[in-house]
Specification:
The protein has 238 residues and is an alpha/beta fold. Helices cover 29% and strands 21% of the residues. The protein has 2 domains: 10-82, Ribosomal protein L30/S12 (60s Ribosomal Protein L30, Chain: A); 94-233, Alpha/beta knot (3-Layer(aba) Sandwich), CATH 3.40.1280.
């Protein structure tokens, strides 16, 4: 057991809630579950044991992994899983993150995407690691509800994404969010936290700006993405 590295083929869901998400939504990726000696036996433990038994996932009773992997005092369960990218559905709408750099932001956007029913996420490298335990934790386990695929460039993504309507979100955009009609299947495209999207995206699809007061210079990435996802899906019947 060692600390997570991006080059590893496995990662970890730190906490019982995230481990349940793993076992329920991606049991084929679950490898084993570690349980701390302080984890109380009861209904939650019985549910965990039942899920592990049903999916033939080994339970390991050991405190050592927690000393290595988690600095959280209230973490008593860790789910170990195989990292797996999944091809995006060409017929569905996508979120596209161009060079996202922060694991916490990436995980928060994953959670919003799952909440608004946009379950296909494209990540343009270089980017934060979607399987970093920090990302998994920030997603609250929503990572196990998404199809995630990485690309080396936006052009590579476009070559594989199929016919769709592109909406880059940027400060120099052509249209305000409340004036934009989102036609499915669509791709909502967002840039890096610090630099956003470069001007070349002004010629891609319909660029959109989220108007706000001059009391701030910009919205942070997870908030902007969540507002955009809400507006694009507000007519959906979840």
């Amino acid at each position: 057991m060692k600390r997570y590295k991006r080059s590893d083929d496995i990662s970890y869901a730190l906490g019982i809630t995230l481990t349940f998400e793993l076992l329920i939504n991606r049991p084929d990726q679950a490898r084993r579950v570690y349980v701390h000696s302080d984890f109380e036996r009861g209904e939650t433990f019985d549910k965990l044991s039942s899920l592990c038994s049903a999916n033939k996932v080994e339970i390991v009773f050991s405190d050592k992994p927690f000393n290595i992997l988690s600095q959280k005092e209230n973490c008593y369960v860790i789910g170990e899983f195989s990292k797996k990218y999944m091809a995006l559905d060409k017929n569905a709408s996508h979120i596209v993150l161009n060079n996202p750099s922060n694991a916490g932001n990436l995980g928060t956007i994953m959670r919003s995407a799952a909440g608004f029913g946009i379950v296909n996420l494209a990540i343009i490298r270089p980017a934060a690691d979607p399987f970093d335990p920090k990302t998994v934790r920030s997603s609250m386990g929503s990572i196990f509800r998404l199809n995630i695929e990485e690309f080396d460039s936006f052009d590579e993504y476009m070559g594989k994404a199929g016919q769709r309507n592109i909406y880059p979100f940027m400060l120099k955009a052509k249209k305000k969010l409340n004036e934009t009609e989102f036609v499915k299947p669509f791709s909502l495209v967002f840039g890096n936290e610090a630099t956003g999207l470069d001007d070349s995206f002004l010629s891609v699809g319909t660029s959109v700006i989220i108007a706000h007061s001059d009391r701030i210079d910009s919205l942070n990435l997870p908030i902007a993405a969540s507002i955009a996802m809400y507006e694009a899906t507000k007519s959906s019947d979840f």
